Amino acid sequence: MILCITEKPSVGADIARILGANERKGAYYEGNGYCVTWTFGHLCTLKEPADYSDRWKSWMLSALPMIPPKFGIKVIDQASIKRQMETITMLIERCDEVINCGDAGQEGEVIQRWVMQKAGCNKPVKRLWVSSLTDEAVREGFANLRESSELDPLYTAGLCRAIGDWILGINATRLYTLKYGVNRQILSIGRVQTPTLALVVNRQHEIEHFVPKDTWELKTMYRDVLFSSLIKPFDTEEAGQKILKEVAEYPLEITDISKKTGREAPPRLFDLTSLQVECNKKYGMSADQTLKTIQSLYEKKLTTYPRVDTTYLTDDMYPKCKGILDSLRPYASLLETIRGSKLRKSKKVFDNSKVTDHHAIIPTGQPIPDGLSLDEKRVFHTIALRFISVFFPDCVFEQTQVKAHAGKTQFKASGKIITDPGWKRVYDSGKKQTQPESTDDKKDGEDDGVLPPFEKGESGPHKPRLVKKTSQPPKYYTEGTLLKAMETAGSTVDDEELRESLKANGIGRPSTRAAIIEILYKRGYIKKERKSLRATQAGIDLIGTINEELLKSAKLTGIWEGRLRDIERGTYSASEFIARQKEMITGIVHSVMNDSSARTIGTITERSHNEKRASK
What we know:
By secondary structure, the protein is of the alpha+beta class. It has helices spanning 9-19, 49-52, 79-94, 106-118, 135-143, 152-180, 193-208, 237-248, 272-283, 287-299, 318-327, 332-335, 374-389, 424-428, 479-487, 496-502, 513-522, 537-545, 549-552, 554-569, 574-593; strands spanning 2-6, 23-24, 29-31, 34-38, 44-46, 73-75, 97-101, 125-127, 146-147, 214-222, 225-229, 252-264, 395-406, 409-420, 459-460, 463-470, 526-529, 532-535. The strands form four sheets. Strands 2-3-4-1-7-8-9 form a seven-stranded mixed sheet, with helices on both faces. The chain has a seven-stranded antiparallel sheet with strand order 15-12-13-14-11-10-16, covered by helices on one side. A two-stranded antiparallel ribbon has the order 5-6.
């Protein structure tokens, strides 16, 4: 008999049906030579401090740092979980082979391997690895099962992540709670949550301490077009007025007219983080809300595996894309533009070298059923439009730049007109096909994208003026922009190419970032005001109290994340990673214990007292 262990009962039911294991026997299915059972997500966890030593049961500074000689796991102490573990153990004893059918990712690998370890599995293990749960994908996955050993580096990275979080989170939480907490309040510290909180707090400090600065820019109106001078903005109005008077004595003369054609490629396909950012921006959905919705769409077989950090597809997906597009019947009229021609194949979409375990999030090609929730409809629509757009041509525009001078002062004006909307038809169908170079001065009458015809050498009267500009503070984070900052270790990046290169050292994983933000809410460290995220006084006090840069630096945490990815690739030592975590927490404990200040951290209105949650 072959035993299949899935991560959820619903997935187990689907796989059992596909395999012909149609007889339900309590917590498993059996038939056709297979048994199919499941976990409920995490059935096992790393042991808690008290499981290692009686001395660690009580919270004492003298007991820190707590570093077990060897980390162990245990079954979570819940009746339903223990019953399921008994079922899995019994089935492993009966079977000849096990197929790990858990979620095809790092966390899924850890969940399943811990369960098999606690069940004492000594049977051969294969791995089902699929990017969607459609019947076709599952059958193809069973026809191409992987050796479990192929995924050893993935499991090792997940194990190192869990151990690293335990070492830092549990020790630092006890350390800061005992040293700085008041009224028995727990101060939660975590390898990812604390630098994420620091991002919010630091941005808030920037805003609150921002000192606006006024500058004056010289502009002039000629033939209803606003020209900007090439002179650096003036620090005082008086300095600007002097040049203004000189400019007013001369006509404006056109000295050069240049036109060039530009192209804008379609936006990249979605990874989980960019999908969460888009849904937050477009619909105000929280990161957690988007994750739960896309997970639901995945389990309904409508979209591919969601917990991914790549925006690329593999080359072998290209032949399947036409069928997926044809399945998107609600979008049939939109697809008429590209129907009948060979599908575009761009290196920005199809690149084997940019895909490791799973490709970008796309529709699966399954019929869209009735009864989807509003959130599911919105998220699916967002994914479908992005998928469709990558097969459309580039957007082509004509850029015109006009140079002029009045006396010795140089001016320029720019205009941009879309000549072929290309992929923008997907998003802007029926909208005006022109756009301005910049909207900063729209109130001043600058062109809306189309410049009137000019001739080199023409000149005439113009109306120069000074435009006062006041510098603006940075914006508060939203969940979307905070996710971007976590992905790029705090760097402010809009360019997609650069964003891709910074992902390697982002903080957290795509699958955990939403949960980290939720933890910060529950701890009472951040709150939401409309769409903006604000740090509470407790959050501000906590970051202000932490002097150890290792604990709160997004860049340093990003380096640790990069090492975990290297472990996953088999290019970095797991023992070295754990040794560095031990060394780091030992240094932090020493530093905090020697702090002679009398600092304390005030009331936290919302928090969880579960120490284990603090370790993430």
